Amino acid sequence: MKRILNYPGSKWGLADLIIENMPEHKSYLEPFCGSCAVFMNKQKATLETINDLDGRLVNLFKAMRDNPEKLQYLIMHTLYSREEYMLSQEISSDSLEDARRMAVRLWFAVGGKTNANVGFRKNVSWNGPYNAYEWNDMYNRIGIAAARLKDAQIENVDAIKLIEQHNDKDTLIYCDPPYVATSLASSHYQHDFSLEQHKELLKVLKNHEGKVMLSGYESELYKQELSDWPALKTMTKVGITSEKKSDRQEIIWCNFDPPMQLNLFKEEQA
């Protein structure tokens, strides 16, 4: 399906490749769902759980699932404007209105960043990227997302504890945590991960009884801890308008032998 949100590190450009390497599973867990790019595009499993520590993001997904028509109406009447972008930084006490504001923030902010006032993403060329055009299509995308989210469990809890709760041989985990701090030029996320948290995450993933797919950039920690895990590698171009784009090697570590090796060049906007 088409992108429903802009979000740092989102996998809309890599979702199909990730899904093609997924083993069969009855239960599926995304402890760091972000924009839900992989979840939205994969086939439904019997039990599905998505989670994120960003409460405003989780509230938006719940609004898409539980009140899609009302959210569609609000989005349809929201102009693509700097004024709406500024308002989106204020948290509303009304959950549905805050869902609208969060959608605005993710679409209108440069790079979809949620951790700072990074500036309004204005359109400067008819030849794209034309954000206003995509925003006007959100009405349709919410309807599609609502159907996909219908039976999913949507959580807003600590990812590591959630992984431990789902330690089952039939549960596939696709894990896309915030990048290790040393591998990024600047912070992109509302809730970044410390090095100690990354160590704890790797510990619980290595103890998981089922299959695991873990996305990230190469770092000394991951290289050392996952030396015996097969790794799929692909080049991506990341960056946003206000920051210089750079080529990055995205790695997908697996605790099983994936069916294919990735050696492709994708251009993404983080």
UniProtKB/TrEMBL annotation:
The keyword Manganese does not apply. Its EC number is 2.1.1.72. GO terms for biological process: DNA restriction-modification system; methylation; mismatch repair. This is site-specific DNA-methyltransferase (adenine-specific). GO terms for molecular function: S-adenosyl-L-methionine binding; sequence-specific DNA binding; site-specific DNA-methyltransferase (adenine-specific) activity. The keyword Plastid does not apply. It catalyses: a 2'-deoxyadenosine in DNA + S-adenosyl-L-methionine = an N(6)-methyl-2'-deoxyadenosine in DNA + S-adenosyl-L-homocysteine + H(+). It holds the Pfam family MethyltransfD12. SUPFAM superfamilies: S-adenosyl-L-methionine-dependent methyltransferases (SSF53335). InterPro entries: DNA_methylase_N6_adenine_CS, M_m6A_EcoRV, MeTrfase_D12, SAM-dependent_MTases_sf. It comes from Listeria monocytogenes. Keywords: Methyltransferase, S-adenosyl-L-methionine, Transferase. It is an enzyme of class 2 (transferase).
